[in-house]
Amino acid sequence: MPDALPDALLTLAGVHTHIAQYHILQGVDLTVPRGGLTMLLGRNGAGKTTTMRTIMGLWHASAGSVTLDGRDITAAQTPDISRLGVAYVPENMAIFAGLTVRENLVLAARSGPLADDRLDWIFGLFPALKKFWALPAGNLSGGQKQMLAIARAVVEPRDLILIDEPTKGLAPAIVQALIEAVNELKATDTTILMVEQNFHMARMVGDTVAVMDDGRVVHAGAMAELAADDALQTRLLGLSMDSHQ
Amino acid sequence: MSDTSNPAAPAAIAPPPLAERLAAQLPYWIVPAMVVVGLALIGDLPAWGTLTLAGLAMGMMIFVMASGLTLVFGLMDVLNFGHGAFISVGAFVGASVMLALGGWMTAPSLWLNLAAVVAAILTAMAVTGGLGYAFERVIVRPVYGAHLKQILVTMGGLIVAEELIHLIWGPNEIPLTRPLALRGAWVFGEVAIEKYRVLAVALGAIIFLALRWALVRTKLGLLIRAGVENAEMVEALGYRVRMLFILVFVAGSALAGLGGVMWGLYEELITAQMGLNVLILVFIVVIIGGLGSVEGCFVGALMVGLMANYTGYLAPKLALGSNILLMVIVLMWRPRGLLPVGKG
Amino acid sequence: MIGTLLSGDLPRSKVLSVVMVAILLGLALAPFLFPGTRALNTAATICVFIVLVASYDLLLGYTGIVSFAHTMFYGIGAYGVAIMLDRMPGSWAAIGLGVAAGLAVAVALALVIGLFSLRVQAIFFAMVTLAVASAFMILASQLSGLTGGEDGLTYRVPRVLTPAFKLFQDKLFGVRVDGRIVDYYLVFFAALALFLLMLRIVNSPFGRVLQAIRENPFRAEALGYRTVVYRTVANGLGAGMAALAGVLMALWQKYTGPDTTLSLGIMIDILLMVVIGGMGTLYGAAVGAVIFILAKNYLQGLMGAASEALAGLPLIPHLVHPDRWLLWLGILFILSVYFFPTGIVGRLRK
After folding, report:
1. pLDDT for B247-277, tens place per residue?
2. CB of A19 within 8 Å of any CB in chain B?
């Protein structure tokens, strides 16, 4: 399936990003096929989060191009990128702690009031949100905050969802719940680009995979291929990945 | 927006420990506690009543002026020393309107009196709001994200604005008499209740409630609160924080203008430097309350108002120092202010 | 030799070197080059303000913190000497005690303020210092028993420093060398010594850490430098230097009052001098002080003449009225922060 590489929803070509005097991305080439889940793997500091932020317009590429659905968004502003149908779940989740769960979702539903059927679907994915609906989001546990952050990204249908390390610091049971939710989300034909350190999660949900190192994509292909090839895993991801299993 | 209000009853989430909840509530109890302690120290009911009313009136006026400043900081990390200019300009514009409407001011009719004040307030707010818009575009926008330059440039803006006031209204201070119906006091037994102070408290309370309502109940208000917590994420949700910021900046400037008119009527004398003098109180309030927090700003303003009036009676020489002391105590207790806004 | 004196921090620009030498010679020979009370007064004021502005630059330019309490420390130094001389007229011991007391109070207060407000957010510092400085000014005018209140203090300095004292019987280069000129040279050499000392401080390892903190506080913290400690110490140093500048002014003017030492107007003057001269270079402080004080003393007269000449026109005479000179300085200030953030010295060095 990924070999055919249907049409790409998102393409990064030779993207360089500087943060202050640091040259973080050094020519990233990345293709995210429409309708699938692409995993972005790599060790800490490889440039995964910077890639996500560059796509979202939170940092701007100094060279190269970012193309979304045939449209050049390299220099676009974050709100415009969001309005083109891209949702972002950052690594720190960035939920609004002083606002209630409801208010967090109200803001995420940009085009109008919250739709009841969509809300029911979200409550199906994350029952805790229904339970704590009227409470300040700051009172939620870490896993619940992550659920709210993802719910915020899917409260209205979006074309592309960027999720940065959703399992970071979460208990295994909650990771399992997240895997189920992500699989459910995939069934809606949403395109997802996910950064993950947890190889178990990556293997369970990923269709295609890109591995980054030192600000470049050093491997791209099918997830199944990487999952089956221990030698490749060791070479690309080091032994540390095994410890997650 | 409110159509999907409550699909489930607020659930039985395990409440945080009692001590923690009390600690969170504590800042709200400071003002009542101060009033009680004030009564104990002053020991004279009529004097205490007068001072408390004066303190609340002063606090409300400072709150009106400080609320915009704290939101502007919370939203875009901009510390605007030029805010003092809006206070002065508001007072001068308001005074000009009231002097022009002298007939209404001295007419023995409450409604004509109020009409003159309302006209002065609306004109002042329109002018300072417009000035705020220009200030944001010309002075503040080129220095986003650079604190040092911001402080310098907005201070420069304050100097220029003060000079322009001198240029337009002349170098002298302008005496401002209150309209007929707002002069004097109602006397109940030994307690004298000054009419203008009651109006100031009422106006301040209305603005606080309206502001709170807007911040809690409207989508725009939610966006502002969310933006104060994490502006980047608000952008990632598809909203232009810049637009939001300009709006808050203009509204904050207009409120500063309103505060200037109120302060001018309170002092019955306006000078070009008054903005800077009041700005110092405004800063103390904003620091005490926690940068970016409207509730904290409100609590802090009332504390400063009461403190200034109580110490002015009990130990006149300490009056201004007392607010510095208040600030130091609050910072020792809570280094980020009473009700800081959780960033990130 | 020169390199050692300047702690290896040379002007690094031909024009700037010429300007600095001109300033040095002009000030050193001021009593002989520009005779007259007003000119000498201007020269002494320039000497004092070079120290004051340079000490402010320690904070603003080298440490990246904005303080509005610098005139408070300046005032503390001036009042220290003034109060002692008021009690013990004309005595050197009073000056010594005044310097010690002023320095101690200024540094202690600066350290306390720093520990409170630099700990949390540097942005608090600007607000806290503004509030504290204004409270201090009110305090100084209220403690009239000690400070003379609004009127300030006029006092007698040691006889050597008064016009009644004659150093030589004959004129030197056509100028009578009286105590006034001795006083001037006291101010001049003290200012020179303090300026060179500050050059040494900013070029020491300590000064380099300050600059590293200014550039990137997080990185400096990560490298193991306690930024709060360094900033607080810098604040104390700046306050001490400002207090010494205040001492010199007190000795020169023989009068100390709230308007000449503590007012926010002087604070704004200092800000303008630092920014126009160039932040982060002590030479900029010197250039800024010279230009600003010359302008303040002589340009206002020029504006007055222009205002009278244009009297018939609408608005314009008001715009160039001498009282409006702060308006133009304010505009100049904003423009320099935008377009010449490195000031005159930064331009010259490019």
Report:
1. 999 999 999 999 999 999 999 999 988 998 8
2. no
